[in-house]
Structure formats: C-alpha cells, structure tokens
Amino acid sequence: MANPYRVLVIDDEESILKLLHHELSTPKRIVDTADSAKAGREMLGRTRYDVVVSDIRLPDGNGLDLLVEFRGLYPDIEVVLITGHGNIDNAVEAMRVGAYDYVTKPFHLDRVELVIERAYQRVCLERENRSFRHSKQTVSHPKLVGNSAAIKHVRYLMDRVAPTEVAVLLTGESGVGKDVVAHVIQEQSSRAEKPFIIKNCATLQKELLRSEMFGHMRGSFTGATDNREGLMTFADTGTLFLDEIGELPLEVQGSLLRVLEAKTYRRVGEKNERQVDIRFLFATSRNLAEEVEAGRFNDALFHRINVFNIPIPSLASRKEDIPLLVEHFLGRMSPAMRHGRLTMTDKVMQCLMRYDWPGNIRELRNVLERSIILAEGGVITEQALPRELVEHGESGGGSGTFLLEKVEREHIQRTLNFFDGNRQRAAKALGIGRKTLYRKLEKYEESS
Ligand SMILES: Nc1ncnc2c1ncn2[C@@H]1O[C@H](COP(=O)(O)OP(=O)(O)OP(=O)(O)O)[C@@H](O)[C@H]1O
Ligand SMILES: [Mg+2]
User: For a substitution probing ligand 1, which of 122, 324, 362 has the most ligand atoms within 8 Å of its CB?
Assistant: First the structure.
C-alpha cells in the first residue's frame, strides 16, 4: 500500500480536534491536531504534512495570515480553511489568497473528508508536475496557457528577457500567473540548472529579517549561536525570486539595493563584504510607485528593480483565454476522475465568460476544481457553480454572448482541425453530440 498522507488540523475547539482526529484517521491518512497557530507552526516545522485544515479564527492568530505564511513556507501543501457559518466574505478572501477550499461550521464530516481528499489529490498532482518539470529529458515548462494578444505579448517579453541577466519585475493582480511566469523565465535562462531560490517577502520573519536575507556571524546578537548563511548565499550563481517584493521591510531595502548595484553584501556581524552573482526576479501585486509615494518603498530600489517590467494582464481583460484555460485545467483534472474527460454545459461556459474573475486564474482554477466534485457523470452544470457566479452570468449583457460564440466557433474549428475534420471524433472530444455539432456548424455557415 502507498504511504499514508498527513493532515494537520488547527482549531482551538477541542471537540472539533477530537472529532476530526477520530473520524478521519484511516490507514491511508494520518490526522494530527494543534490547538493554536503557534502549535501548528511548530508541528509544520517538524513534520512534513500534505494538507492543513485550519480554523480562520484562532486565539493567537488569523487563519488567513497563517494561510499566506504556510503557502509561502511550504509551497507544496494545500490549505483548507474552516469559516464560521455564513461568513462568505472570509471564504471568498480565503480562496483569493490561495486556500484550496473552505468548509463552513457546523460542517458535515463527509464534506470535510471529501475536501481533504481532493486537496491531497491536488498536492500529488502538483508534486508530479514539479518532478516532471525537473526531470531533464523534457523541455516542458509550467505552461503559460493563453492565446490572447495580451498573453502573447507577455510571452514575447519573457522570451526576450529570459536568456539575459537583467532583473525582471512581474506585476499584476493576485492570481494572474506571476509565479508561473517567474518559473518559466528561470527555466529558459542560462541559469536553469543553477539554484533557484524563491522567497515570499511577506513571510520574512521580522526579528530575523536581516539574518534570513544575508546570514549572520556567531555571537552577532542574542540567539546567534552559530554562523548562518542567508538567502543571498543560497542563491549565489543562480536565481533569486523575491515574491511580494512590496512587503520587504524598509530597513533592508538599502542592503538589497547594494546587492543589485555592487553585487556585494555583508552578513550580520561580519566586517568584510562578500561578492555574489545572482539573477533577480521580483513580483508584486501592489503598485510600487504608489508605495514609493507613500514613503513605504525606497525610491532608488524601485528604479533599480523596475528596469524590465512585465505587466501581466488580468483575466477580465483577456476573457478570450478562458476556454483554453478551462480546457487546460479540465484536462489536468480529468485523470483523477472516473468519468474520463470532463465537460461542461454551454450555460456554464457562458457564466464563466461573463464573470469578472477578481481572483483571476487562481479563482478560475478553484471554481473548476470545486465544480468537479459536484459534476454528474463527468458533466459540469450550473448547479456545480458558486451562486454568485451564476447570478452574475444572468445579469450580463449581450456582448458576452457574442464573444462567447466567437470563441466557441474558434474552439470547434481548432478541434476539427486536430481531428482532420472528423466530426464524430471532434464532437466526442468537445463533449457534445454529433447532431449538436452539425447544428452549430450549419449556423456558422449561415452567419458567415
Ligand atoms: N497562463 C496560465 N496558464 C495556466 N495556469 C495558470 C496561468 N496563469 C496562472 N495559472 C495558474 O493559476 C494559479 C495562480 O497563478 P500564480 O500563483 O502564478 O498567480 P500570482 O500572480 O503569482 O498570484 P499572487 O499574486 O496571489 O501570488 C496557479 O495555479 C497557476 O498555475
Ligand atoms: Mg504569486
């Protein structure tokens, strides 16, 4: 049998901890519990977990902050949040900052178990993708899906800048794909085989900030019992991706500037400067110019990291990419399903096209993953969508419909081409009946 996977439940209600531990522990799933943010943090530091389930409200912390912290520290786990009944704002926020899903209290055990199981499947998929990417025989990189003019421009900029040594600043709303782009750039660079260090600046520990970044010498402050290396040393000769650079505390911004300009840094408590050779990538969803304005970001540093900016457009501004993205995600999720390839009704696609996606591609991915759970016989219907998405779809205007038809038509044409014009196979791949396909093709002929 495969090794069991590990789940950590963080909640301050002892009854919930007991219940989940008791009911959800099986030979293939180990469930540990922690009754505070602090305890949870410690356990995560000691043991490798796959899925964390955390209450959003803890006596010593906020589940949303924990979520951001854990996702930064342990990028290959998924986090599920428990929210109070009817607290939809929290739930939405949770999804937006990267929760896999949420469950509301009081909950059904079945639902919790299903969500955990799904989250674990996702963890496996991600790990598989990652090891696949890292195996050298393939040149495959995490795919930046999309065919819109906007995304083509992003790809153009990436291809140009990747092989150079220039620092790159990736900007764009949360969930637009800044991480994806950073990975692709690194993999296309001449440093692809060198260390790739990723640090989310929001998770830098305040007390150890300078030490974490630059390292320290033994005895340089209380608690510094050993010499320690920092991020700069680890990234030397390779690439350092500083995510959420807008969160970097002002006090170390000057030192970072020095690394960028002089390629030197100093460990805490050390006199001599050291040389480093690092290619930098930065990302932020903040407007850094405004941060500079407000005195929260070093002006000189801003100019230094803003040499080559790749703005990544929001999903709302390139809705024509939605069908491709849907195809991509369903294709990836389908193998985990019993029904073969997943499909969706036209109405669902319509809703997806009309919605504005404030959480961008991450939100789209999450919506699709959740809808799979509710799909019947491999078909996703409106019932599987969150209500606000369907409602939004119904109040939408006519231009969406027009765009949708255009996109659908192109999609069908591509599928037909792929199957050398074989309508039967195309219809099957599209998940529609042969008659429906004929009807659509006739309609297109009439309107052209
Ligand atoms: N063009 C794309 N093609 C395929 N998947 C994408 C694309 N863009 C984003 N994704 C997926 O969407 C999710 C969010 O993307 P990512 O983490 O890169 O966003 P981000 O801009 O870094 O967000 P944040 O600001 O919250 O860190 C990821 O699962 C990623 O794989
Ligand atoms: Mg990111």
Answer: 362
